[in-house]
Predict the 3D structure of the following.
Amino acid sequence: MELVDVILWNLWNNRNGAIFDRPYKDPLSLVFLSIAFLDQFHEANSKDKFNTPTSLQSRLSIGHWIRPNAGFVKANFDGAVFMDDKSSGVGVIIRDDKGSFIADLSKKILGILEPNVVESYAAKHAIQLLHDLSFNKIVLERDSQKSSKC
């Protein structure tokens, strides 16, 4: 969840910078910047500097998206809770077996929901979007393992 927070802050800061004549940064570079920032933050705040876990970037396997089999599409989905805004949100992205973008969806949900409930809503929206687009050879992948325990 903290990575989402840092990415969102960097996106917001980037947008404000563009408004006030600072150079605009590519969103993907902001993701890597966010990962590097969190990695450094965790390393600096680690109690045992010699036995720190592997870097956040390697734990997240960012940039290592696994393609679905030929003829399949893959829907990645996630949910988030925004305490300050007293809301929740879901996001879905669908890509084909070559990694090409097909469709996406993001939706704000009023009210704070439990993380596993938000993840379940994200799964529901992913399945609905796949259905609406008439895909039947699908792979679903979520960010959190919590929804599988519901």
